[in-house]
Amino acid sequence: MFLPLGEETIIDPIFASLETDDRVDNVYLSTNERFADDFETYLADSEFDKPTLSIEETTDEDEKFGVISALAQLVEREEITDDTIIVAGDNYLSFGVSEFIDSFVARDAPMIAAYDVGSREQARSYGVIDVEDNQVVGFTEKPANPSSSLVSIACYGFPAESVDLLETYLEEDNNPDEPGWFIQWLHDRTATYAFTFDGAWFDIGTADSYLDAVEFMLNDGTYVADSATTENVTLESGVQILEGATVTDATLTRTVVFPEASVKDASLEDSIVDSHAAVNGVSLTESTVGAHSTLNRPE
């Protein structure tokens, strides 16, 4: 959610769109107690006024609710009774959330954002949608044999009456985890529509998808923070060197070097060097170097 994309984080464009939309009264950032301090710091340092932290009553990842249960608890905790937009914070969207709201308001019905991932094989990892005239006529969560390559991307619009159905869904002992199970249940009960779009979408669930998003955001270019130090380096497309990092005598391709990390006499491709890590004298491909760790050339 707070992974950097140039001078922004992944979630910043979502908040920026909501901040300037007069139709949006309240923005809730939901997390559990374990991450509350990090989120409070982010909000305090951000330029956004609307977001409010809403904390789930869990501390350990093992205690986390399923997504639908967490949404139902959020609705109860914040006493939400209005039309509601839900966006997953680990998604990079190439459209503004206000565009989605335009379509949602026009339909005045449940709506889901949908993206064609280009292959049915890839679609197996997501909720797969069948549409007719933009109405959802079929929805299957992570099917073994997808009927299409059009998938749900965790951006939803629910009228107030549909928000109330979250509790009904759970009371019937339905799956409390992925939101797609709720959509699968909902579209059989009320007309539900798809907001399809071109452009780009990245589900930042893996290092590779994060690097894809960085490369897209930088338009195949590079980003070097003002406080970073580089000397005798070759930077290919999709390279991001963040605040306080030092890179010398190195070649980087599609790589992110996090704050205060160092890379020296190395070649890195499709890799991530986390904060305060050090990489010296090695060649890496498709690698992640953890925070505060050191990787040296073997003697």
From TrEMBL:
Domain (Nucleotidyl transferase) ranges: 3-218
Pfam family, one: NTP_transferase
Keywords: Transferase
InterPro entries: NTP_transferase_dom, Nucleotide-diphossugar_trans
GO MF: transferase activity
Signal peptide: none
Name used for this protein in its record: Nucleotidyl transferase
Source organism of the structure: Halorubrum coriense DSM 10284
